[in-house]
Amino acid sequence: MQSFQVLQDTPQYTVSSYGTSLPVLITETLLQADRSAVISVQLDETGWGCFVCGRKLFVWRFKHSQLTRANQCYRLALPASELCHAAKLVCLFPSQGDTQAPSVLAVSPEGVIRFWTNLHNELAFYERGLDLSGQECFSVTHLGGNTCVLATTSNQMILLSVSSQHMQSQVEVHNLKPSQGMLSRMSSLIFGYSKSHTAQIRRVCAGSDTSEGREVYVLHDDVLQKWLISEPGLETVIYEKQLGTVLVHHFQREMGLTTADGLKTWLLDVQPTSSSVLLLAAVTNINLSTPKLHYAIVEMKPESSMVEGQDPVDSIHVTDQSLAYKVSDEVSLLDCHLLLPTPGTSTSFVYGKNLLLGCSLSPDIGPVFQDINITNSRTSNWGAGAVDNECLFFNSSEGLVAVKMNLPELPSMDESIVSQSRPDQSLLEVPRFEMSHSFLQTSLTVATPRKTDGISKDPGNDHLTGLKAAFLCACRSNLTQAENMLEELFPLDGGEDGYTDSPLDQAVKRLSLELINDFPPADPRWAESVPQDSITATGSLILIHQLEDKMKAHERLVSFLKNSGLWERLTNHSNNTKSVA
């Protein structure tokens, strides 16, 4: 049983200490390290962790079990290097029993491998160097068993197989190359066979272990690959998709922008789930005077269900939170990762050295993004991992902590009706907000036209969709996002106010009619009447507040128009050739 102490307990999340105190060897290293020391941590699902500081590598047991006590700690010396060592270049090979320490393989940034089968003797290790022609090592990913993949910054991938026979350890090396075939052209570009291409590897992630081999996901800039590795010499790229252009179009639509000019996107991480693949992405608009960077979670369909020409993106959720974007800060801003407690969960975490966001993509309550403060002071995250369905983080102040999202319970129908009838708290109040000149895009989740319909050629549809999205943001108290979208859709200096059937007049009229005529999908009595292919953006607005009375929804729309300043700008619209104010 793990001991814990609650550090932060809020309605949105809970932070608690995990396990016992840190081993003395690690505590002493932390006390002696200066501010310039580069520290990184890796937490393995087996309950063992790696702590790297300078050339020191500590492997310790942080999870207590009936057979193994926590806080077992071993100190190892990493190869000499002029570059910074990192925990992501260390791989743990678990022992057959839970009572023994794992074997450890560590690689220096220059490509010197050290392998320990017995952690009790720091000096008893196998060592060999790799000829990387000046490349730097990027990461080491365990594939299960006695194999792992070493990736370099220039996209070379090397399969490492460790063995220990007759009291002698060795590491076999095999360069992974994509098989020839339909994917060879793009793969040759990615893997550096074209000198003009400078794709950078972002992530290597182990997938399922199938009867045909181990699945491995590889992220190179905006290209996602899926490999199948059976054994050295039998590796195949079975799926490959370039996602850059697709993501730009999705971000444009999700942010309610009329143009994609200036949008810059990155893919940062990939995590397979039980039914799909999740990607961590980042986006900014470099054309703005003060660009902001947002993170997003992208859900992709399984490649088995893909057909030629189909949009691979199933859904995309942009975070409410944003960070100031500067080119000089790009490396630190993009050094973020995605962590899932289990492959089938709707909860995930986006984390970086100075960032921790809790994310819930539950279809019942919609996307929720929450800033998480482990302590009240500014601290750093040095590493993370998932163990026994818990997400653990190594914090510079508190050590090892567990973070859990507290998802709100959905009210029953009776509770919903009672809450709506309270005279002292109207769900229809839209908080008043002042329009500012700042232009921040934040998260919105609103139903969009079916992907098979293509892009609408009617500009009026764009204004209507954008107004719906802004209204939805205001209902969710995402006021900054709502004002930014309105500035983009209906600028004050657009020169279209005061005319009959202006874009604003038409959008307000059409949204009002849709709210009035919309099927109430929350009411089971209408279930059979709802068209199968209907677009449920307005339905989502009603569902969010569980409104059964359309008058309340319409009053909320009017309140939104008045508080946003759009009400005063409305003029006339034509109705059967007559002008109506």
UniProtKB/TrEMBL annotation:
Q: Which residues form the Nucleoporin Nup133/Nup155-like N-terminal domain?
A: 10-357
- Molecular function terms from GO: structural constituent of nuclear pore
Q: Which domain of life is it from?
A: Eukaryota
Pfam name, any one: Nucleoporin_N
**InterPro entries the record matches:** Nucleoporin_Nup133/Nup155_N, Nup133-like, WD40/YVTN_repeat-like_dom_sf
Q: Localized where?
A: Nucleus
- Kindly state which keywords UniProt assigns to this record, in alphabetical order: Nucleus, Transport
Among the record's GO biological process terms, what is one?
Answer: transcription-dependent tethering of RNA polymerase II gene DNA at nuclear periphery
Per the record, its GO cellular-component terms are: nuclear pore outer ring
Main localization of the protein described in the UniProt heading: nucleus
Q: Which family does it belong to?
A: Belongs to the nucleoporin Nup133 family.
Q: Quote the protein name from its UniProt record.
A: Putative nuclear pore complex protein
Q: Which organism is it from?
A: Stichopus japonicus
Species classification = Eukaryota, Metazoa, Echinodermata, Eleutherozoa, Echinozoa
